[in-house]
Amino acid sequence: MTTARPSVHATAPSPHGASDPRQEGPPDLRLAGPALAAWAAAAIGLGAPGSGVAVACAVGVLLAALALRVAVLRRRAERGGGEEREGPEECEQHEVDEEGNENEEGNENEEYDEDEEYEEDEQSGAGAGRGAAGGAGAVRGGAAGRTYRPGSSRRWSSGAWVALAAVLLGAVAGAASAALHAADVRRGPLPDLADRYARVTVELEVTDDPRLTRPRVRGSQRTPAAVVFNADAVRVTAPDGAVTAVRTPTLVLVRQGGSDKGAPPDGVSSAGERDRPDEHSASAASALSEAWRGLLPSTRIRVVARAVPPLMPGDQVAAVLRVDADAPPVKVGGPSVLQRVAGRVRAGLREATDGLRPDARALLPGLVVGDTSRVPPDLDEAFRATDLTHLLAVSGSNLTIVLALLIGPPHLATRAERRGLAPRLRLSLRGTAVIGGVLALAFVVVCRPDPSVLRAAACGLITLLAIGTGRRRSLLPALAAAVLLLVLYDPWLARRFGFLLSVLATGALLLLAPRWSAALQRRRMPPRLAEVIAAAAAAQAVCAPVIVVLAARVGLVAVPCNLLAELAVGPATVLGFAALVTAPFVLPVAQALAWCAGWPAEWIAGVARTGAALPGAEIGWPGGWAGALALAAVTLVLVPVGRRVVRRPWLCVLCAFALLLAVCRPAPFTRVITGWPPPGWRAVVCDVGQGDGLVLAAGDGTALVVDTGPEPRAIDRCLTELGIRRIPLLVLTHFHADHVDGLPGALRGRSVGAIETTTLQDPPGQARFVVETAARAGIPLVRAVPGERRHLGPLSWEVLWPPGSPFAPVLDGPNDASVTLLVRTGGLTLLLLGDLEPPAQQALLAAHPEVAGVDVLKVAHHGSARQDPPLMHRLAPRLALISCGADNPYGHPAPRTVAALRALGARVLRTDTDGAIAILGTPGRLAATVTGRRTGARPPSGRGGGRGRGRRRGRRIRSRGPAGARSAGPRLRAGRWRPAGSGDRRRARACTSA
């Protein structure tokens, strides 16, 4: 008789069936349970006491032994049950119908159905029997090949008990390895010396590449960059002279000379002659930094450092060694030969890319070997916003390209028609596996043992082992085995988010992506496009909850950006590897290859920058594990909804249009939905954190910008929401980092006519930053002149401060040199005080006695307690604006400053609790609209607690005007003027002042 052909052969183009059939069935999860148990036990065991881990391991071993004993007994019982069932099954060979006739044809059909049932049970039950629940699958018994189903019994099968024992043993192994590695951190004198903040002399062995930290703004200053690297302490000399040989992991922090200790920038002079350029000190500091950053792994150095405890008690290091970089590192031993070769190869790639454009020069080494030392902060932020950072973390795709040159397509690696260099070199399967293993190890050395590199190399080695032994390749068991081996080798990986993201992404590509791709292909999508979309969507779905834990955000452009970047990743990586290999031998050829690779690398950088520049590139989401669980729940709900959506083309178009609106956020659409920005706004205090950033409307898409805050993305987002495309003049009141470090964000994608600065170029390092940023953008720099008057559309303003030479002694630091502007727009008068301190405020009042009775006051120095009461009484503002960051460590704004302003009849608004603030109206109807984005911020005196996240539907707030009368003016709700008494809800909160 004939039977139906299996689907794998029936759908093949050849009449003889598929030559390389892929058997469909459930995934092989035999190693998943032990791997996950080892992972969890290692993560817990690293922070648990050693005695508790030992007791838990002993209990685990006993339970595993008991489970194995039960499995043996259960297996014997199953075999006995199969023999008992053999006789009756053989006797029932015929059926008798109601009339007493034998129905042999029906019996044959029954036997055929039972055989089909057995085949299905063998395929589905075997896979299920491999996991923890797989022991309840089908177990064959008896000579007739019948199926014995112990699953009908409520007791576990022998396979389930074996799986339980494997899980317990995996957990025991993970916990034991974690306890041993944690003991290394606590061993030796360094932990005790760190608790005492002792100054020690330590001989170190470098274990990874030194990296430069990103400068950060702390208050008004930018913290200088520091060189950071991990090292093992091998010899410790205590303050009392005791010398101890140890092997303790440490983190070394080499503090560079402050960037503000140098001179003002070239071509810019300060007030007076107290600061002069000193190029020698700057070049010396740069040379010291390069000497420390040039250290290779396995190099031995001797340092004198102050030992401090790590930030968290359960960290991987025993102490943080703070070293002052006043001299190059003292080397007591050179790197190993292997590390020297790897360092030369990496340096050759950097040299080959020196002539490329900035983005390609920075990005190509990161794509090929994970070298991100040249990636600037703005490009790094763009990659983070678009979830493309995995491209800079070397992973399985890079190793696949390397191994594909040797073995060709992996699915043909064990067959006679295999491709690649191996058959051309007449290498056997075992020889191919050995050479592939050497390439994988070299890959780890050159690209450094980061979590994603280790995971990729372990999976590759296991696959090569399968090729060398002639076994069937199975990627999911290879991933589980790689996780198990790596966690046992280095339990600290169990606590690293990079390792978690790498495993989750790989698992999604193996489990979810094929199913989603098949579903898309059933909707007539081209196979290659379906595979790419499914892979990007699956990886994003499983990794997004973890990213929420780290960044409290959800990227809306991640999948499109990944799809667009994928077009260039392959060419850039292949050409980059070719340049990497040829650079040590023929540098001109490597430069030509790098030039070719630079084009796709620039494409990737352009995709990241363009995606990150979109207003809705990412949205805020509750952080922490609670936020991760919430996002995971939302994803689980959206996946089945998405299945129904893809069946209806009109719904797909509608969802795509909605996503496009959410990402692009056109100003009219945003204004209707959120009420921001309100129509007719005169000025906006941007929510830039602990700093200043103010925008004054000067026409359609045009504005005068005063200060840019401490962070480029915040001011860029604010200007984008306001629709500002042209800035004729950008004023920087003074050079403190919380006022100027956001300058690149304000310049991004906008036409800027000139940048006006104060006369005092202090701090010099931050003044140099402004000069260099303006020079790169081709924007002229001008200085503010006292008495200077300008007008721009409806705006007019006058520079009141800093003064000329008669008042020069008053300028006691950068704050007192703040550019102070008196602005008039739409009949309103605004005074912007910068960060003036009381002495400068008193001098300002003496120099300009005519200034009095302003409508809006931008309070000096973020509302600090250092205010001049006579000036506040003279100004008597109706609306006082304070720009400060939520939960800032300086206590801004000071309660007594807020109370004094309220006592004068002013309505006080602040960005830490109210979000961005928009001023609108006329002198008769002055109004302000706020976004109210803050959550958990410290409430002002006499007010309620924090606000919820997102744009807030708030209440209307009135305040008394100068004469004490209540405001009876109209209200601004949902971006429209409404008469008093209208009851519709509003998106942005309106605050009115008579």
Automatic annotation (TrEMBL):
- Composition bias (Basic residues) maps to 946-959
Q: Which SUPFAM superfamilies match?
A: Metallo-hydrolase/oxidoreductase
Feature: compositional bias, Basic and acidic residues:
272-281
Bilayer-crossing residues are 36-68, 159-180, 388-407, 427-446, 452-468, 475-493, 499-517, 529-552, 619-639, 651-669
Q: Which domain of life is it from?
A: Bacteria
Where does the record place Gly residues bias?
126-144
Ranges of compositional bias, category Acidic residues:
86-123
The Metallo-beta-lactamase domain extends over 690-861
Give the matching InterPro entries. ComEC_N, Competence_DNA_uptake, Metallo-B-lactamas, RibonucZ/Hydroxyglut_hydro
Low complexity composition bias: residue spans: 932-941, 960-972
Bilayer topology term: Multi-pass membrane protein
Q: Which UniProt keywords apply?
A: Cell membrane, Membrane, Transmembrane, Transmembrane helix
Give the start-end ranges of region Disordered: 1-30, 78-154, 254-285, 930-994
**Where is this protein found?**
Cell membrane
Which NCBIfam families does the record associate with it?
ComEC_N-term (TIGR00360)
Which protein are we looking at? ComEC/Rec2 family competence protein
